[in-house]
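Following up on my earlier thread - several people asked me to post the actual chain instead of describing it. Fair enough. Here it is, all 69 residues.
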Amino acid sequence: DGLPAAPEGKAYEVWVIRDGRPAAAGLFDDESVVQVGRTVPQGVTVAVTLEDDEGAAQPTGQPLFTAQA
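Reply from S.P.:
Thanks for posting it. Predicted structure:
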């Protein structure tokens, strides 16, 4: 909540990071409610990055924020 609109051609991407390996879990914009598209087991990190609007195979920059599951 409260994220600014992503720049033109960009989207926010959610990652589930387990044992240092990120797996894409969905794209969203500043007006979306995110339903993570993969299982989130306890002990993993969920992160959000700003990526091209088609998504990325791996995060391209530092997470904007993270949370522990």
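The chain has a mean pLDDT of 88. That should answer part of your original question.
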